[in-house]
Automatic annotation (TrEMBL):
The keyword Repeat is assigned to this record: yes
One Pfam family here: PPR_3
Source organism per UniProt: Prunus yedoensis var. nudiflora
Alphabetized NCBIfam families for the sequence: PPR (TIGR00756)
Gene3D superfamilies per UniProt: Tetratricopeptide repeat domain
Origin: domain of life: Eukaryota
Protein's name according to its UniProt entry: Pentatricopeptide repeat-containing protein
Amino acid sequence: MTSPNMTMINRVLFAFGECGEIDKALLIFAQMKALNFVPDLYTHNTILEILGCAGRIDDMLGQFGSMKEAGFDPDVVSYNAVLNNLRKLGKFDICLFYFREMGENGVQPDLLTYTAMIESLGRSGNVDESLRLFSEMRARRIHPSVYVYRSLICNLKKMGKVDLALKLMEEMNSCDTEFAGPMDFKRNKRL
């Protein structure tokens, strides 16, 4: 690792993360910094995702803070990594904190952001706010996915709002050609 460029290092980190070789990816990241290679935003985003997928939320949030201290402004990929991994572990209150921070920093949410937040808010019992975000998402012309509809319907039924759940189910069944597809969930990491 004496002359590789950041793109190559990012791809190696990503590959180790995808293979579940978390410790090796983190060792490379530490070695990279020891050799005075300066991580870029994509490196930080990759490490956030690796730590989050490994369930190392405290490390992920520490890395998120370190990234900001190093002068990197988190982008939508950074926030989505944090939000999605917090959501998976049921840390809904912390999701809301980072979602608000995202808005305060002028980072526009995308389909992944809305999906994570609608799911988080609904599962935490705040279906009114999840419906507000659903409306906001549609107003921004972001096509919902079937996952968003299913989450809303399930959470509305749990909260006893069966009529509204049925209305959304009818809407979902009548507009299947307007759903966001798998390509809408792909991340742009530029690796």
